[in-house]
Design goal:
Two copies of one chain form a homodimer. By secondary structure, chain A is mainly α. Chain A has three domains: about 70 residues, Arc Repressor Mutant, subunit A (Orthogonal Bundle); about 60 residues, Orthogonal Bundle (Arc Repressor Mutant, subunit A); about 140 residues, Up-down Bundle (Four Helix Bundle (Hemerythrin (Met), subunit A)), CATH 1.20.120.530. Helices cover about 65% and strands about 5% of the residues of chain A. Chain A contains 13 helices and five strands. In chain A, strand 1 and strand 2 form a beta hairpin. The model of chain A has no long low-confidence stretch (mean pLDDT about 95). At the A-B interface, helix 6, helix 7 and helix 11 of A face helix 6, helix 7 and helix 11 of B. The structure holds a DNA duplex.
DNA sequence: TAACTGTCTATTGTCGATAAAAGACAATAA
DNA sequence: TTATTGTCTTTTATCGACAATAGACAGTTA
């Protein structure tokens, strides 16, 4: 069991969706492009599809024989990559469960807990360490620094610097820059969510990430863009286990975003700064309130 | 050969220095503290010292019998941790050797090259990825993004934001804060180096890191402090292989630092900002000039 | 009785092995 | 003659194993 074939299973499931409205599938390299996998994996998928009687496969001819049924798909939890599994398990440990700052983190224990080898856990922790929530004692354990008030303040301090600068550079983008079109699409979704906020407020989290990432990208600075990962993951998991007032909180943020977007589209640097500051201030308040 | 005993060898060498001016060694826990290793390693060191006839060891009594000779020490290259070895080798590859942007990075090749396993190489690359110079294609290779002009500009943009803010918070530190004493010591070393610049200009690199780290620390923000790692490692390796005008360059930087330090000690926020900006501008110019 | 030592166990750091996935190259088909 | 397929090789992701190191606990010494 050196490596699970999760890439194959995930790509297979996605490929079943492709089957929907064609009588035959494209060439192997093209399928590989669409699914983001190599030809080796494409051929494994095709072989399995043939085996299940979904297609007839003879060299270039890949004729669809029938539409996929529910039981043709692999179970979703078999398609998660190991690093996703570790991330979820670890975030639950430190954000949802009561984890005090200063606690030791034990690689072996985590590995045994999830039922995997230590290598992947180590790699995850190393990747995770850039979020500033854990720290390594060389030749020894990791220390949890905790999702504390100080953490939130340090995080938002940098976030505010970066976002203000990014927003300022957004207005200097030439009108033909694709970011303007993206902004319009994002704005439209804001209106959609607001119109049906009672049912769709939970979709805000994803939209929030999309909008702010769009702003950060306009800085054209990899360090600024990469830093947004930290914000995104912290907000994502934190609010996943902190749903108090979610509907109201998200509605307010949507309104603030719309002001912010309007300011960006006005291309007036002062308005942008004002709207951006307003939103950042209230985002910070909201975050701080949710930390005991 | 699961793991080299480099921790032991390095601590042993450092322990030999401790032998200099005492007739007997302290307790095992205390030695462990001084050397930064566990008692297990301390006992291994004591055992070896006894074997070499350096001490007589009987429970609490650890009598020094003779001073260490050159051949008692382990060769220095046996004391480098594996991650240090990989780091050096990798930095030489990408900064010294002609490495073009877009080049693929092959874990197995690096591992074979150095003569180690792939695990450590992977871990190094993951840790290194936060420097923004490489990027992972999932399930596939890493891509070298190159030490380019854009990289330098993005790096210095963030650096300038962070350092200006840190310098501003430095002047608000209370007079009894240890940073002021550190600053005084750092200032003194600046004068020492300047007084003998022809012989000691090479020591600037280390002093530079110490000074700027001191400034960044006053931000009390882990993300700002951690970011300085990136600056430090990039400058360290870059100037290690780029010695043109080193003497003149360093002398000028020392002068700028002294202005900057004087401004900090004046506690005048405007002066600080001006001096900081001047130094950052010239540091950026110098860096950009050294990139083709 | 408080710190130190002897001894033992648990965890980390690193390797080699292996299934999965990527990718190179020649043969084939349109 | 250009893209596609068949086949084969290389690399990545992951595990289990094991030496080095850290750390726990009980017995010992001052």
């Amino acid at each position: 069991m050196a490596r699970q074939n999760t890439v194959f299973k995930d790509a297979f499931n996605r490929c079943l969706l492709q089957l929907a409205d064609t009588a035959s599938l494209p060439s192997e390299p093209e399928l590989g492009n669409v699914l983001g996998v190599s030809r080796t994996t494409v051929r494994a998928i095709l072989a399995r599809m043939e085996e299940l009687g979904l297609i007839r496969w003879n060299k270039r001819a890949k004729t669809v024989l029938r539409q996929p049924k529910a039981e043709d798909y692999f179970p979703e939890d078999e398609t998660n990559s190991l690093s996703t599994i570790i991330e979820r398990s670890f975030m639950r440990r430190i954000l949802a469960g009561g984890a005090e700052a200063g606690m030791q983190i034990n690689e072996l224990e985590i590995a045994r807990d999830i039922g995997i080898g230590t290598t992947s856990v180590r790699e995850f922790l190393i990747r995770f360490s850039r979020f500033g929530l854990i720290e390594k004692r060389p030749n020894s354990h990791w220390v949890l620094k905790g999702f504390t008030r100080e953490f939130a303040l340090e995080l938002t301090e940098v976030r505010e610097m970066f976002e203000l600068r990014s927003a300022a550079s957004f207005v200097t983008l030439p009108p033909e820059h694709p970011a303007w079109a993206d902004l319009q699409r994002v704005e439209a979704i804001h209106h959609e969510l607001l119109a049906d906020i009672d049912n769709r407020y939970a979709e805000f989290s994803e939209l929030d990430e999309r909008f702010h990432l769009l702003v950060h990208r306009s800085s054209a600075n990899r360090f600024i863009v990469d830093f947004y990962d930290i914000i995104a993951i912290v907000f994502h998991y934190h609010y996943q286990w902190n749903k108090t007032n979610a509907r109201q909180r998200n509605a307010r943020a949507l309104e603030e975003h719309l002001d912010y977007i309007a300011a960006l589209r006005s291309r007036d640097a002062e308005k942008v700064e004002a709207a951006c500051r307003r939103h950042l201030r209230s985002a910070r308040e909201t975050l701080l309130q949710s930390i005991p």
